[in-house]
Amino acid sequence: MRLAILTGIYVGVVCSAQIGAQKIVELPWTGDAAPGGAVLIGVSLALIEVAHRTAPTRREGWINAQVMIGAGFAASALLAGWIAVVDAWSPAFPGQGFGELADTWRIVAGSLAAFAVSETIDNAFGARLRDLVADPLRVLATNAVSAPLDTLVFLLIAFGSLEFFWGQIEAKLAATVVLGIPLVLALRRALDRPLPVGAT
Question: Mind giving me the DSSP string for the chain?
Fold first, then answer.
């Protein structure tokens, strides 16, 4: 049950990030530019660290996190595919369509490739650090490794350049500190509460 709830949150964050990536935004604290989904990728990477606490052992926690990553991967591909299908249908009213949102295949390919690399590395690194360091430090350490990898793979495939590299790094790491760590701590407290009798 706990893993299912966490996976639902994770899938929602990942799909929202994919939609947000369609727009390049100006970061309020530096003025640098980054795809709008970058902030939520910082959150998704942090959520992987919570998955390690959904099982009694490191290996089982790693497996649970990989299940989440697989669900996020599948949902992201499904979202892009369904948008393409609906966009190809004849509209009932003139002028209807998804516009730029339907032209997402490079962004989707970049997202999925970045997903496969960064989230899996984040999971492996985080699983090793479980019980060795406090959760906030674990989130910072894993994201410091996985966020640059995610950015590098995504930008090269989706945009063919590293123009937004620093903006993405700033957005992901800021999201890690401002959103990711508090969310991890709150979810960790919820996971540590004993389940009612008969619940799983």
Answer: -HHHHHHHHHHHHHHHHHHHTTSEEE-TTT--EEETTHHHHHHHHHHHHHHTTSSSSHHHHHHHHHHHHHHHHHHHHHHHHHHHHHHHSPPSSTT-S-GGGG--HHHHHHHHHHIIIIIHHHHHHHHHHTTTS-HHHHHHHHHHHHHHHHHHHHHHHHTSS-TTHHHHHHHHHHHIIIIIHHHHHHHHHHHHSPPPTT--
Q: What pLDDT, on a 0 to 100 scale, did the predictor assign at position 152?
A: 92
pTM of the entire predicted model: 0.80
Structural tokens at position 121: 């590395």
- pLDDT tens readout for residues 153-195: 988 988 888 888 998 899 988 888 888 889 888 887 876 665 4
List the one residue out of 42, 26, 22 whose CA is nearest residue 34: 26
Instruction: Of 176, 160, 138, give the one whose Cα is nearest residue 41.
Output: 176
Q: Kindly state the tokens that stand for 101.
A: 């949102």
Share of the chain above pLDDT 70, in %: 91
Q: Which residues pair with 187 in a beta bridge?
A: none
Q: Which of 136, 181, 169, 155 is nearest to 38 (CA)?
A: 169
Q: What is the pLDDT of residues 124-154, one digit of tens each?
A: 888 888 888 888 898 899 888 888 998 899 8
Residues 33/25, Cβ–Cβ less than 8 Å: yes
